[in-house]
Amino acid sequence: MKIGFIGLGKMGLNMVHRLLKDNHEVVVYNRSREPIEEAEKLGAIAADSVNDLLGKLEGRKVIWIMVPSGKPVDENIAALLPLLNKDDIIIDGGNSYFKETIARSKLCEQNGINFVDCGTSGGIWGLKEGYCLMYGGSKNAVNHCESIFKTLAPENGYLYCGDSGAGHFVKMVHNGIEYGMMQAYAEGFEILEKSQFNIDLTAVSKVWQYGSVVRSWLLDLAHLALTDDPKLEKIKGFVQDSGEGRWTVQTAIELDVPAHIITSSLFNRFQSRQDESFAMKMLAALRNEFGGHSVKKAES
Question: What is the overall mean pLDDT for the chain?
Fold first, then answer.
């Protein structure tokens, strides 16, 4: 299939590479030129603008957008809509908030365009391992794009989730679960690291990969990180969040679901960004005030 692809970041460029390896034709556009040139070397067709990209697609056009959530998605849709023909397809493969996806789908439908939301998981490993794809939209549109999904995903790794927004909703919850799993691993390894035993964390992360009930791809990645840096001395404990955890917590509140673990893991990410937490200072001060518990004085 011939497809237009907008957004050649870490995941986008690898996705284009995987499509090309399976003999799809891919026309690419990116705001900066260097990734376009990299994609060209892999066999992609370069475009200098959105207009140029669409001019190099024939028949029913399919354009995959792989850009950050929010304004960049809206800007690309606004650029595409006046140039597309009835029944063409836009796929948003990023981590968009499902409520915004539903609104975008309605806007596209008003213009006679199909909008497919495709939650994409796999990170930088997707080129080799494939991407888990969770997508929503009209059956006609997603069926037309199935050869793309089949190429990008490993065997049994893509799923039609339902109407517009369903794909991004499933991916949002997927990432919320990921937050909780990562937090559990982080806390468990800290307990091991602080114990009285001289435990080899790298060895533990390896042995848990064989037969353990806690084995997972995240554990595999933990093993890789510990192999490279056994004490994790090369990195700072600052953890960003990209939105999906927040959206999952907000949705849990709206649905009256007591999502304790996911909520706690999100707040732990917030705490990681504080060089010195006023809340922790207040806790120490209160313990000192009511119980005379010792406090550590701040350096002057």
Answer: 94
